[in-house]
Every structure is written in structure tokens, then in C-alpha cells.
Amino acid sequence: MRRFLLAAICFLATVMPVASQTLHVSLRQDLDNLDPTLTTSYVARIVLAGLCDKLFDIDAKLNIVPQLATAYEWSDDRTLILHLRLGVTFHDGEPLDADAVKYSLQRHLTLPGSFRKSEISSIDHIDILDPATVRIALKTPSGAFLAQLTDRSGMIYPPKATEAAGQDFAQHPVCSGPFSFVDRVAQDHVTLTRFPDYWDAKSIHFDKVTYQILPDNSVRFANLKAGTSDITEYLAPTDVAAVKADPRLKLAISDALGYIGLNNNLNQGSRSETPYGKNALVRAALDAAIDRQALVDVVFNGMFAPNVQPVPPNSPFYDATLSPPPRDLAKAKALLRQAGVTPPVMLELLTPNQPDTKQAAEVIQSMAAEAGFDIRIMAIEMTSATQVQQRGDYQAYLNGWSGRVDADGNTFQFLRTGQGNNFTGYSNPAVDTLLEQGRALTDIAQRRVAYDQAWQTLRRDLPITYLYSPRNIVAMTAKLNGFRPVPDGLIRLQGLGMPQLLGMTQTK
Questions:
Q1: What is the CA radius of gyration of the chain?
Q2: pLDDT tens digits for 237-288?
Q3: Can you tell me the distance from the alpha carbon of 144 to that of 261, in angstroms, rounded to the nearest whole number?
């Protein structure tokens, strides 16, 4: 009997999560802010996943799945009907209803400085049919619009609390997610506490979540090994073998949706007035000097995929015919001669001061030197680097985009003339037309034709020199159950829990 009792206790220990625990999540960099309309950083998306539910989410297979909206239908090719989840409340007690959805989408569209405006700019108007039903009328048909509601554009605000907070909303954000905001100390941590009235409360098994800001890869790994972090959203590929060898730890590795590349300043202020910024031949010379495979082999243990387009190989919009070319120093030197520039070509390369990103910049610097470039690296903290880029105070910026499920999310706001994240100042009417077609068409085959043509033009213009597609490498304590690897890389707190060993008295 004792054997059966022990077996039952062991079984329960593996499936019953502890309710009174704090989950410690380590992040590779500090976040910019916690206003879904105004934030641009990837790590902010990770924290917002605990704070703010969205109208829809995506699953591991890139399917769009319900969250705050339980269903949808297109009444015609420009009219989307959303059916909202009943009984949802915000952290301040306000009900989440059709009024809140309309308010939030309009805020995304109209708030000064909004980075969501370009994502949902196809909205013409929004009608409230009843408290649980919203009708969104688009200006044109769109095969991309629904996917935008799976991320920050689909996050919904409580109207009263948001209006009351005004410009200070990001200092104490209020949403409808599983956790509510407690505090944030820049460069150190963000703390959330469990929201007891969450609509899916049964899936939440921690009382608090603390997001620790740990930019150094080795420090994050050391904290994980020491047990002061439970899960790290990014493990350096060079540490993967050590995690596999440690029975106290485990990994979740999945293909990502984004890219890393050189964002090139073409037309943003005086810093763009260089041969590199004004002549595509010079940018092509640097492109030819880079051995992408060697880059990912040296810095990332070969775990990332060399790439020359805005979408990764797992995207339905990936063009398999557009493969990364081999390094060609002779071509690089010839292109510089054709451009009429005399080596060494000076170039300042801005980069976040994360160890592996800085190492990647140094590898590029070394490769480029053989072709006639003199690259000076400026490595600074990530949030500061992003602000420098936004001001146009840079020449080239080694950075990336975490990616979206639809190609529109990886391109339109970065490459379309005048859009919110187009900090390169790129403007090509032909590409504008193709990107407009790509988001407006609904047939995926026709959309692929438009994007394939856009990718070819981008390879010539090089507003962004795409280098490689990363992978999501998440490491965690072996005690943590319920992690779901999704290509967007976000840590979803629903279902996460630690096993609990029930107390018992043994007798002999």
C-alpha cells in the first residue's frame, strides 16, 4: 500500500503546480516602455505577454487562435466581425467590451508617436454592434490585417484608466492579462503580480513574476545554473551544450520569425550623407564582403540560418530561389571601384552592447576590412542604441526584428515610405506599390508574387542588409513545466508551473 501511495504522490508532484511562488524570468536587455502603442522592443513584448491579452494569439504552427476574441468572420472582403469573450475585466475592474476594443484600436491609430498606426492603417471605421460584437471596416481588402491583431495592435486598453493616466500610462500600465503591474526599475527588473479575476485564472500557477534585466550572456547563464532565474528568454548558442549536459536544466529551441541585419541610414539627416548611405554599390560591396555562414558559425555555433530577405525559411513568404551568395572579395573591391570611392571606406557601425551581437559586429568589421572598409564599432546599451537610430544619428545599425507571423509585419512599417519604423529613410515607389499589394491581396499565391518581387528589389537597394535568421533558444530549470515554444519567442505564462512534493509522514 505504501508503494502505491508513494507512486500517487509522485504523480501528483509532477502535475500540481505551486500557487505561492515567484517566477524569475531573465531578459537579455532592458525594455523601452510598457505602452503597447508606443513600444518597439522585443523584451517589452515578453513582459506585455504577462500584462496584456490580445484579441488573438498564434500557436506553435502559426495558426491564429482566440484570446479576447472568441471568433471572427468576414462578412465581405473588407468587413471583419469580431465576437468578444464575455466576462473579461481589466485590472482596474472595468469591463472589457466592444467600447474598449474600439477605443483601443483608435488609440493605436491616432496617438502621437504610435508604432501601431502603420500596422492597422487599413482600418476605415469601427462600429459597435453590441457589447460583445465589433465590426471593423477596412479601406481595402487585406490578407494581413487579422495577423496584426495577434500582437501589440490587438492589445486592448481600459478606456477610463488609460485616459486618466494620459502620457503616464507606461509608468503604471493597466490591461487584462493574467498579471498586473507592480513596479519597474530601469536596467534592473519589472515585477508583476497575479490578477485574481483573470478570465483564465485556472491556467496561472504563480503569484508573482519578476523579469530580471541581465544583458550579459554569461551572467544570465550563471543565474540560471544558480537557481536565481527560472527561465531565460535567450540562451547564447555557445551555452547550449552546457545546458544539455546539466540535468537540472532543459532547453526549448524553435525556429523564429524575424531577422538580424544592418539597418542602413539612407536618408535620415546628415549622418546619411556618406558614400555608404547614398550609393547602393557601396552597400553591395559590404554585402559581398560578408561570409554569412562563417559569421553564424563563429558567433552562434552554426545554429542560425544565413539569409538575405526579411522573412525566415519557415515563412510561407520565403523565396527559396533567393539564397545567400558566397563571400566574394573580388566583387566587393570591384563594386567600390565602380562606385568611384577610394578605400578605406569609413563606416560607423552602431550595435547593442550584448556580447554576441558585439562579437558579430567585430566579425563583420574584420571581413569588411579585407574589402577596403574601415568600420568603427559603437556599442551601447540597447534602449539607447534604439533611440540613436530613431533620431537618425547613425550610419549603420546592427540590429534585428523579432518577426511576425505575416510578411507584412516584417516589412511594411520598415520599408514603406514614411512609415513609423522606417528609420533608414528608404523610399522606393516600386517597393511601396508591392508592399501595398502584399497586404491588400487575400490570395496567398498572389501575395507571394508581390513579395518575391519586393525581395529582389531590396537586394539591389539594400536599405537593410539582411544577414541571418535567428532561432529561439530558451533555457529553464528542469522543474518548470508547461512551457510552449511558439515561433514568436514570447514566454506565455499560461500553463507554466513548478511541481510540488506533497508532505507526508513515513512509517516503517
A1: 24
A2: 999 999 999 999 999 999 999 999 999 999 999 999 999 999 999 999 999 9
A3: 24
Q: Rounded to an integer, what is the distance from CA 124 to the centroid of its chain?
A: 27
CATH code of 2-28+178-256+472-477, in short, is 3.40.190.10
Q: Express each pLDDT in 195-238 by its tens digit.
A: 999 999 999 999 999 999 999 999 999 999 999 999 999 999 99
pLDDT confidence of 20, banded at 50, 70, 90? low
Answer yes or no: is pLDDT of 411 > 90.
yes
Largest CA distance in the chain: 89
Other Cβ atoms closer than 10 A to 456: 14
Give yes or no for a cis peptide into 344 (omega within 30° of 0): yes
189-194 β-sheet, strand order: 179-185, 189-194, 208-213, 22-27, 231-232, 471-477, 249-255
Put the strands of the sheet holding 396-401 in their side by side order: 305-306, 464-469, 259-264, 396-401, 345-352, 373-380
Q: Where in the chain is the domain with CATH 3.90.76.10?
A: 50-169
The CATH number for 259-469, chosen from 3.20.20.70, 3.10.105.10, 3.40.1190.20, 3.40.50.300, is 3.10.105.10
Q: Considering the entire predicted model, what is its pTM?
A: 0.90
pLDDT in tens, 31-80: 999 999 999 999 999 999 999 999 999 999 999 999 999 999 999 999 99
Predicted pLDDT at 416: 97
Q: What is the CATH number of domain 50-169?
A: 3.90.76.10
Q: Is the pLDDT of residue 13 over 80?
A: no
SS3 379: strand
DSSP string for residues in 1-37? -HHHHHHHHHHHHHH-B-SS-EEEEEESS--S-S-TT
Share of the chain above pLDDT 70, in %: 94
Residue type, 210: T
Beta strand segments in 165-303, E: 179-185, 189-194, 208-213, 231-232, 249-255, 259-264
**How is residue 309 annotated by DSSP?**
S
Order of strands across the sheet with 69-76? Answer: 69-76, 79-84, 133-138, 123-130
